[in-house]
Amino acid sequence: EVALTGKAYHYETYFAPMDKYFSISVVKPGENQFATVTADITEHKKAEENLKKSQAYIKDIIDSMPSIIVGVDDDMNITQWNKKAIEYSGIDIEKAIGADLHDIDFFLKENIELIREGMDKKKIKNIVKKISEKKEGNLVFDITIYPLESNGNSGAVIRIDDITEQSRMQTIIMQTEKMMSVGGLAAGMAHEINNPLSGIIQSVQNSFRRIDPQKEKNIKISEEIGVDIEKVYEFLQKRNIIEFLNGIKDSGERAAEIVANMLEFSRGGSERLEPIDVNSIIEKSIDIASKDYDLKKKYDFKYIDIEKQFEDDLQKCMGNKQQFEQVIFNILKNSAHAMASSNTKEPLIKITTRKDDDNVLIMINDNGPGMDEETKNRVFDPFFTTKEVGEGTGLGLSVSYFIITDKHNGKIWLESNLGSGTTFFISLPFIKE
Ligand SMILES: Nc1ncnc2c1ncn2[C@@H]1O[C@H](COP(=O)(O)OP(=O)(O)OP(=O)(O)O)[C@@H](O)[C@H]1O
Ligand SMILES: [Mg+2]
């Protein structure tokens, strides 16, 4: 055909008996002639094959990493986009490779300046970034930028690790350690205060009994010394002494209540536990909250929208009904208070329960003011409160903390962003079958 048409022809072929690759060119040197030039390209072919293999191998390595790996060149065009990057961004590789990072809908584009800086200064950069896009709480990422500079390649490789779980565990561990020491201290103090306090309360009660003009013994002794007990009582009343005694009694009882709460910290696990149904306890707590007189005075629960998303047929957990109700109530009360005092428009509390392996996960979310970092780190501390003196003791959440962790073997934690609300999470193990 080449001899006839004069059109040169080129092809490559593999010759099995020799296990060699050949490149063959056919030309027409003269009328009715053809010539072939055959070159052994086996070496070249093998090298090419090896290159392809090693490229595929590197891609496999990058894809099997648990991290998100993104490569960019000097102009921020994406050169590398591994499987995890696809998974987290939802953007497939064809769309990503070659695209400008600015145009890609992925949180990394908010860090372009940092990537630039790392590339320009040839320095490794690292940041931890929180993203609150999932409805089940914040995701935390650790982002490291490695500037590239090899064989004339410049740009950067960015490694992103999802450290949500670690950072949650870390705060839980820190919280546990802190609570052990602070809780122990508070419980010790409560114990010490308990005795003198009982002395005060008992003495007041005795005093009331011994000035009571109706009591026979009081009448008898007043007659013995020749005074009119009714007059004595009238004097005590006129001089407000009865009122003062009542003051001592009320304050003493209030202190005793606080002390009783503090003693919760140390009583670890002595309460009787029984199988409880989490959903119905939450229902009950909502009911209690909506009827609570103290709550109603300042912020009526009626104005708060309660949205429930309960998982049906949850297994039961071991728990103490009253205590568990108290925990949910404390959280609801805090939300109601926070939303009322910040004048939240369309206040909404969302309560969700769902199975999470061997645990039930309870999420209580409000769209209130949220908390700043300082508050977030201290909410579970005994006596930490941002409320006015006399309005809150700061014991609500610390008691709840001990009830959940110490007595129910569960976990409690929170996520909160200033301006966009707060979510409390409680995880409680199901009873093992
Ligand atoms: N849902 C929430 N939104 C905003 N801040 C909250 C929320 N829940 C708790 N807080 C903050 O945490 C602090 C501690 O709460 P905690 O329930 O332990 O104590 P308290 O409510 O101040 O007092 P007490 O519960 O003893 O009456 C509160 O003062 C408030 O600043
Ligand atoms: Mg409270």
Automatic annotation (TrEMBL):
Transmembrane segment boundaries: none
InterPro entries from the UniProt entry: HATPase_C_sf, HATPase_dom, His_kinase_dom, HisK_dim/P_dom, HisK_dim/P_sf, PAS, PAS-like_dom_sf, PAS_fold
Keywords attached to this entry: ATP-binding, Kinase, Nucleotide-binding, Phosphoprotein, Transferase, Two-component regulatory system
GO biological process, one term: regulation of DNA-templated transcription
Residues annotated as domain PAS: 54-131
Domain of life: Bacteria
Reaction catalyzed: ATP + protein L-histidine = ADP + protein N-phospho-L-histidine
Enzyme class name: transferase
PROSITE patterns: HIS_KIN (PS50109), PAS (PS50112)
Record flagged with keyword Phosphoprotein: yes
Domain Histidine kinase residue range list: 188-432
EC numbers: 2.7.13.3
Protein name, UniProt field: histidine kinase
Organism: Muiribacterium halophilum
